[in-house]
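Hi everyone,

Forwarding the result from last night's run.
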Amino acid sequence: GGNAVPYALELIVSPAPQAPDVEDLTKCDDTDNNNTDNKAIFDLTIQDAVILEAMGLEPGDVTIHYFISEAFARAGAPRITNAATYQGTGEQVIWVRVEDPVSECFSVTSFTLHINKPLPLTTPSVLAICDNLEPMNDAKGTFDLTVKDDEILGPLGMGQGYTVTYYESNPKATPPPAAIANPQAYANTVNPKTLYVVVTSEEGCKSYTTLTIKVL
C-alpha cells in the first residue's frame, strides 16, 4: 500500500575528455625518384604529446589510440597497432580516440597525412669539354656543372624552387659527404668521372641522379 518511501537517485555524469584539434602530418615520399608510391612511414604517436599538452594532462591520464576510420575509433577497435611506424598513404585521414581509462568516456578527432613528392629525374647527357688548356692532353679541365641544372630539372622542375647540388661521392653515405663547393668551376681529377646529383624540393624532398663529365 500507501507506505512508499521516496528516495533520491544520484546521477553522475562524467565529462568525456575533449580531444583537441591536431595538425596534419607531412612527409616526403620515402622511395627514390621515379619510384614514388605515395606512401611513407609516419610516427603517428608524435601527436600524443600535442594532445596531452592541449588538454593540460600528463601521460597516463588518458589513453590515446589511432584508427583508420571514424567508425573504428568510436568502437575502439580495430586500432592501428604499429602507430610509431605506420605506413600511411597520401591524403589518408587518421582518427584518434582519447579515452578516460577510469570512466571509459572518450572523444575522437582526426588529421590528414600528406606526402610530398620529389621531382622525377632523368640522367643527363655527358658533360664534355675539350682539353685545350696547358698542359695539353693531361685529361684535366675545369667544368661548369651548373650548365646541366636545367637538363636535370627538366621542364617540370625549372623555375620551381628546386636546388641542384653536386657531389664527388654518394650523398646517401653515412656520414654524408660535403657537396662540391663551387660547381661553376669544378676541376676533375679522374677522366671520365661520374658525379652524384641531388635535387631538393622546397619541402626538403630529395631525388637523385648522376652526371658523367669527360675531358676530350
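The first strand starts at residue 25 and ends at 28.

Cheers,
N.
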